[in-house]
């Protein structure tokens, strides 16, 4: 399957500039889950900017 990196970048809200996985969603998701985190796209923009990608931060952001 072909990676649609350029299309993915249009919707990627990750503000971590040196990230080598930007736009490569399958790599991003695998990386963050391995780190027991969620990727930026799971968070509202204001929360994403804190770089706290923990499950706890996700639940708090969405009032779960």
TrEMBL record:
It comes from the Bacteria. This is Cytosolic protein.
């Amino acid at each position: 399957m072909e990676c649609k990196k350029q299309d993915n970048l249009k919707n990627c809200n990750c503000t971590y500039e040196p990230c080598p996985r930007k736009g490569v969603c399958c790599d991003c998701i695998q990386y963050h889950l391995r780190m027991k985190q969620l990727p930026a796209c799971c968070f509202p923009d204001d929360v994403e900017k804190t770089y706290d990608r923990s499950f706890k931060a996700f639940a708090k952001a969405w009032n779960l």
